[in-house]
Amino acid sequence: MKKLINLILNPQKLGDGIKRRFYYLSYKNKFGKLGKGAIIRSKIWHTGGKNIFIGDKCAIGPYCRIESYSNYNGQALNPKLVIGSFTSLQHAVHVYCANSVVIGEGVVIASGCMITDNNHGTDPEGDFYLKQPLKFRTTTLEDGVWLGENVCVLGGAHIGKRSVIGSNSVVSGVIPPFSIAVGNPAKVIKQYNFESKLWEKV
Fold first, then answer.
1. Is the N end or the C end of the chain the one with fewer CB atoms within 10 Å?
2. Nearest C-alpha neighbor of 153 from the set 103, 102, 113
């Protein structure tokens, strides 16, 4: 009995397969949906779980923060955060939703990425920025997108199907499907040509 209690209090000591099952069951009822076969590799930080919908066979790495907020400093919000099936969030990914974040199926999100649909107000004559109402626009990552490490996706960004965003880039606008984009702000440098079967410079 003592050994069982110790394992419950210290799930990191469980075998990998058992540990994944332990975390799945721990979080299953804390989200609007946690799909079948989803893998949660360790404890994660989450807020507003009932507004978060995670698809089948997603993989969520350690130290991720997945948050939705229905209220911010008295500002009523109606968030919905959707993560499609087969999507992978690596180590320390932060997704923060105040209105609408849609992440498609089969998306690869490398370590340290941040995805949001909102920002603080920035009126320099108003209250502290932290206390100003949030401003938000829908953020969308279509199916098969790949974000390199430490990519920042800001409110209103729309990344098209199967596009690749280079490490440390900041996406604030629209990236067309089948594109490679890098930089701050991220700009398209290559697009896939279905006739030549090559990524070609633009």
1. N
2. 113
Q: Note the pLDDT tens digit of each residue in 41-69.
A: 888 899 999 999 999 999 999 999 999 99
Give pLDDT, residue 18: 75
Q: For residue 5, what pLDDT is reported?
A: 53
Burial of 124 (0-12, 13-18, 19+ CB in 10 A): exposed
Residues 6+ apart with CB under 8 A from 168: 148, 149, 150, 151, 184
Domain residue limits, the chain: 12-201
pTM above 0.85, yes or no: yes
| 12-201: CATH topology | UDP N-Acetylglucosamine Acyltransferase; domain 1 (2.160.10)
